[in-house]
Design goal:
382 residues, alpha+beta, nine-stranded mixed sheet, five-stranded antiparallel sheet, 16 strands
Length: 382
């Protein structure tokens, strides 16, 4: 299986509620140094959702209200055990119980570094393991079939709807409190989904699983790891320890300082950022400001090309559900047909700027089809 093989096992589907990034999107896992050697040896830790904050894997208030409204139609039905049906309560209890079966490995998208991320997710002496989405798909947990991947979208849980269908979709949504994470997740299930009790009665304690607080997702660490980033202020001793640990585990990735300390070592690769996951007002201006900022902050003495990639699911061209990927390249940017996920039928609109001058926009086939439909209907495109 190669990253360019469109027949590879999908980690999401064409009609799911969440999305995955372009293959070349940079993804990082921030870790305390004390767990670094264990990760190289045993893979990436995924924590049980039950140990996360209370909204993890739960529906938003508007979604629950919708479920309660639908459930009212069945309230007068009497079940064989003599209880009245309470479907909404049963669904909510099943979601709560499922938190014991779902495990999430949490990553950060892009090369921009936030001091709070370093402090929150990798206390003390720290590192960040850098890879790309396509490498995660190919080299993380290749022997496991029950895992999913995707971009985390942030919501106002009092105002916006979460999905109400497949249970695992909920784990790709988080409360807006966490939107600084710019999250990407790998999700696995160990135990299936609980049965929904239509009588709304609580599940007996003996029926609950006795699951571990975390599991490890195996990985080909040498093939997956592109670089290891040192935390801000790292000294020579930290670098030496990281390099020695990599060597002991047969991982040949270079070790570089945080860009908060030194920008220069990062110019031999490329910059990457993702926006749109927190566009709460569904604002076109929000997306335009994000793009303008990225282009305006580009040092054209260093970078040659900026690609701005708009990704949306087929025929879901709406500011709230659009993701924008921004890339900077020193030279030789990729063919723009490589962006997006063709096998998932995503629409790709790829805008290119060279040395500060806008060049043109590439549209893939699904985006072309939508543009034609909008033109025929006399509607403006986004």
């Amino acid at each position: 299986m190669t990253s360019g093989d469109s027949s590879r096992r999908p980690v999401t589907g064409k009609n799911t509620e969440w999305m995955i990034p372009s293959d070349q999107m940079i993804v990082r896992r921030y870790k305390p140094l004390r767990h670094f050697a264990d990760t190289l040896e045993n893979g990436f830790r995924a924590g049980q959702a039950e140990g996360y904050e209370e909204r993890e894997g739960q529906a938003s208030e508007p979604a629950r209200e919708h479920e309660r409204h639908r459930s009212e139609r069945t309230e007068s039905m009497t079940l064989s055990n003599g209880e009245e049906m309470d479907l909404a309560a049963g669904i909510e209890q099943a979601r709560e119980a499922a938190r014991e079966n779902y495990y999430a490995s949490c990553w950060r998208l892009g090369t921009d570094e936030d001091p709070e991320i370093w402090d929150t997710y990798a206390d003390g002496r720290r590192v960040a393991i850098e890879t790309t989405y396509s490498q995660i798909e190919e080299f993380l947990a290749p022997d496991q079939e029950d895992h999913y991947m995707g971009i985390v979208r942030y919501l106002d849980y009092e105002e916006e709807f979460t999905p109400t269908g497949i249970p695992y979709a909920l784990y790709f949504y988080k409360h807006r409190t966490f939107d600084g994470e710019q999250g990407f997740r790998v999700l696995t299930n160990r135990g299936g989904n609980p049965i929904i009790r239509t009588d709304g009665q609580e599940m007996p304690p003996e029926s609950r699983p006795d699951n571990l607080s975390h599991v490890n997702l195996s990985a080909d660490m040498d093939a997956l790891t592109n670089r290891v980033i040192l935390s801000p202020g790292a000294d020579d001793d930290l670098r030496a320890e990281v390099e020695e640990t990599l060597d002991e585990h047969g991982v040949s990735a270079p070790v570089v300082p945080s860009r908060l300390d030194d920008q220069a070592p990062h110019h031999d690769t490329y910059d990457a950022e993702l926006g749109g996951a927190a566009n709460y007002e569904a604002s076109e201006e929000y997306l335009e400001d994000l793009i303008d900022r990225f282009v305006e902050e580009t040092d054209w003495d260093v970078w040659n090309t900026v690609d701005v990639i708009q990704l949306n699911q087929r025929e879901r061209l709406h500011p709230r559900t659009v993701f924008v990927e921004c890339f900077r390249y020193v030279e030789d940017p990729p063919n723009r047909s490589e962006y997006g996920q063709e096998h998932l039928n995503y629409e790709v609109r790829a805008h290119r700027v060279v040395n500060g001058e806008y060049q043109n926009t590439f549209l893939n086939d699904p985006a072309e089809a939508t543009e034609e439909e909008l033109s025929e209907a006399g509607e403006p495109s986004e």
